[in-house]
Amino acid sequence: MTESTRVDNSVANTVETQPGATSVADPDGVAPDSVAPDNVVPDPEKAARPQRAGNVGEPLVVIEHVDKYFGDNHVLKDINLTVHQGEVVVVLGPSGSGKSTLCRTINRLETIEGGSISIDGKKLPEEGKALARLRADVGMVFQSFNLFAHKTILGNVTLGPIKVRKVNATKAEEAGMKLLDRVGVANQAHKYPAQLSGGQQQRVAIARALAMDPKVILFDEPTSALDPEMVNEVLDVMISLANQGMTMVVVTHEMGFARKAADRVVFMADGEIVEEASPEEFFTNPKSSRAKDFLSKILH
Ligand SMILES: Nc1ncnc2c1ncn2[C@@H]1O[C@H](COP(=O)(O)OP(=O)(O)O)[C@@H](O)[C@H]1O
Ligand SMILES: [Mg+2]
Are 161 and 25 in contact (CB under 8 A)? Predict the structure, then answer.
């Protein structure tokens, strides 16, 4: 519960309190037609990883020697991780290992005590307009969807582009409708979040992240709060994003997703990256005893 409370505040912060951001997105670039699938449910064959092989590009998120403390608690210990353009990195690890904190440091929802993080070649500044601009390049999707309850579905998706990217309302709504269509909830546009199922709300949260035209999207256990029958509709949207070349960092316990969509698995324990491997290698031949122990618990 404390986690979702924290997250609620931070999302409101990300979207609503950055009037200083001056970057204006090309509104047509918010929802490029060329990447919109006809159907959010991908062909399982096409969704397989090999299709993505070779698509991974330049370093986009570069995390070097990052240390993070909460008081005396050293929660990120000399973290080094590079996420390349178009890459899908799945972060696994037991509860408390620092996965959420890592996501939150990537767009400075948490400060760091040591090391550096850069996005697309630019170091994350401490604060101010430059931070707001860089932060807008990093989409986030959380376990507890965090939609604004008093805004319609379309209003949730257009808020960031209008307030932060300064897109005009009509263009933002056009782009927003395309995005809602892309995640399969266009017919819910004028409802309020409470009128939607959890799976639908999380798909809206993904559309809201996409509306900012981010360079990378971080997903922190996006399906953990969902009823089981709604998990796949969200994972399917994420798989189709992965296949369209979106750069993604995904904290999840969904091993099927990791196997299908990840280019790389990063396993964390006690604030450290203990192991990094292809999904195939990680699941069939984990090296560390921590990873073996984790997998034996999660794969029954
Ligand atoms: N806001 C916070 N204040 C103090 N300690 C925190 C805070 N957030 C996380 N922690 C601590 O940091 C460690 C890593 O937590 P977290 O990143 O949430 O792990 P995970 O997401 O892997 O479960 C844990 O020991 C947790 O108790
Ligand atoms: Mg977490």
Answer: yes
